[in-house]
What does this fold into?
Amino acid sequence: MSDEAVKIPKALDGVGGWLDDRFHGARGVRVLMRKVFPDHWTFMLGEIALWSFVILLLTGTFLALFFVPSTQPVVYHGSYAKLNGITMSQAYASTLNISFDVRGGLLIRQIHHWAADMFMVAIMAHMLRVFFTGAYRKPREVNWLIGIVLFTLGMLEGLFGYSLPDDQLSGAGLRIFEGVLQGIPIVGTYLAFFLFGGEFPGSAIVPRMYIIHVFLIPGLILALITAHLFIMFWQKHTQMPGLGNTEKNVTGQPFWPYFLLKGQAWFFFIFGLLAVLSTFAQINPVWLYGPYTPLAISSASQPDWYMGILEGALRIMPSWEINFLGHTLTLSVLIPFAVPLGIIFTGAALWPFFEQWATGDRSEHHINDRPRNAPARTGTGVAAICFYGILWAEGANDVLADRFDVPLYTITWIARIAVFVVPIGAYFVTKRICLGLQRHDESLLTHGVEIGIIKQLPDGGFVEEERPLTPAERAVVAAKKVPAALPAPGEPDANGVPAPASRGVMGWARGVANRAFTETVLPPDGHGNGHGDGHEALGQPEHAAVGAGEPAESGEHDGEEH
Amino acid sequence: MSEIEEPAGTAPRRVIGTPSPAPVAVDTQEKPAEPPLITDPTDKAHASRAERLVAALFVLAFLAGCGFIAAYVALEVGQSNIPAGANAVDAVFRSNLALGLALSVVLLALGTGSIIWVRHLTPNIEIAEARHELKSAAKDRAAFKSEFADGAAVSQVTKRPLLRRTLLLATAPLALAPLVLLRDLGPLPGTALRYTVWRKGLRAVTLGALNPLRPGDFQPGSMITVIPEGYQDDDNALAKAGVILIKLEPGQLNFPNRYNGSTLIASMNWTIDNSLVAYSKICTHVGCPVALYEQTTHHILCPCHQSTFDATNGAWVIFGPAARPLPQLPLMVDSDGYLAAASDFPQPVGPSFWERG
It folds into this structure.
């Protein structure tokens, strides 16, 4: 194995032997030790979420030792003098106690809150990475769905968590949550009454949120993370395109000792960053907000970032409400509550299957796409980011109005229009950028890299020197894979009959989607560098049209050619 | 079927797949191709420097860890533990700074040390692991199917529909039981959301000071929050019964009687002297208190989602997501000259709900 073998200490050897006698682990654990972890910075995003969750469990357990989940009123006589003598719930009083009378309590509370925000940021960043690289494709659709459920659970977990202290800010958030529940048709009023144990605010909601927050949802999240990691382990990681990376292998460094050390380092870094934030950047100073009372409110009340999209959606809505047959359908609550997140989560959940349907590609994918090589997907992703981002920013429209000195209603009107227009524009702009980058890649493959040396030709012209791509660079750039084009709607196939699947409305829709997914830049010479699979064979006219843009482009290049 | 639909997509996969009938060779655990993990880095001097650096970072982590414990012991928090006259809030922030700084150094030093260790002391190797199609071999699938079918046959479940159906029947109530058990989580809504504690003659008192008010106490342009007398400690009552009183110049307040169906919901007759009007403080959108009042425009603004209501016009919605005006509370002056409700709100206050109609 090595030039200088490490002698296994006798005690460790003995323990290992004892365990192996009972569990037959040597062979399996040996495989685990050599499990390959690909090395790419984007693969650490999900890990941030994992370590944040571990930190949440550790800090949350500490907080639970001191927190009293009760709305029982008490008169406060703790160390925060400004609230001395005020009647407040035990939940709020015990949160003050954690902050002001428990050593390290404020630090742990702030780490807990920062870790929750980090957890959600990391999940979102991880999901965006997975989306833009196509890592959700077969066989990883189930893990993609688990990820969406985890994000949703994280939102609910966070909402209940920051509502527990029963302070003025989170109480207003709970009031909104209750109002939204009431807006759900048919069952909404009952849901609200059952969750709150009657009318708002009641005294049941804090202990109920507590058990949901510390037991039910964390248990679900833990189970789903376990499943997520097990599936990832079982299916092996994806990898980015690169020299020696194929669909039949996974390259990287082994778990023992490389990933163990790196994972440990990453855990310490994330924990360290959270500690730095919690030391220097105050978060959720509940003592400044005061205890919750139903008739007080402060302006510029914002929820934690991951609820911002719901807040923005509520703010952006016009006042729509329908009354019929003695019932009220309050669209100005229902639409913001259900539609934006419904579009994003349902859209994300259906996307892998939509892509399979549109491309007809049922094969396994283990090499990730570079975002530019899937313009329709990348465009859709950027459109979704814009849609989410506008609603999210609108959630702070009062702050924006104040900071940028723009009338509040103007900001809301801008957002009302932008939320429809910007995503559509972003889709097309992104797609064009992707195709432009593909063109650049094609020129890299055919001409090489410009190296900054200008040569004067005997006839007086200038050319820039180029060097060919190295094999490693070429492996990345040439990794483009475009899905095969399906026959156009109603177009006869080789046998002169339109394919059954291309008929009707669904056939038409599939054709449109297929053309979007297969849109690409063909190599200037028209015959591909071994990666334009199947286009010519199918003789897709739409492709010819897209490709037809190319000669002009390549013509320019031709002019530069020596 | 898929082969017929997508000859281009599937055909190459099968071509590659079929001529490799020797997955056994790939699968063998004893495959000698795995590169050995070489233990020693090639550049010994560089490695020694890295080792010293990592060790220094770990020592730093140790010292900072000791500092954390020292800070915990030395920096007390809580009014009863700190010297008399010292500020408890300052003590907490001092403790937070010391503990947080020490913890940050421990963790970042450990992280930095670990990463230098793996980057500079372990050789940079890359190994490849073979990957196989996840789909089971056809014969395994077939064997699974037949064994499953055999089991189903042995169990008789396919042959005896009576057993199958009665089993399903037996479990149905059990599956419903958890839902039934949740029934007592709360009372049924009934008409609770339609009414507040306001009733004829119930005085309005200021929030906080609990003073009753006379019509003469108001200056034009003023706005004040009032609550029903005697309910200051009842959050459930207050969450619906909070009211804003707005005093306007005579003549500014001007709106027609408004009806919802046959119910009168807004009327000048419910104001005092056509200049003092009472509206629910609970936003009709999702229930935030509408707390902002702009004197010059007479707009009432909800700070949560910016629903804006016109105080001079029956709290009509002029912007934002709220779909209905703030309900008006009919006012009267009682026999002692104090402001009181003339009745409950004529319509439900707060957010809409399905049964509202």
Summary: The CA atoms of residues 162 and 385 of chain A lie 25 Å apart. The longest strand of chain A covers residues 449-456. Chain A touches chain B through 130 residues (CB under 8 Å). Confidence is low (pLDDT under 50) at residues 527-562 of chain A.
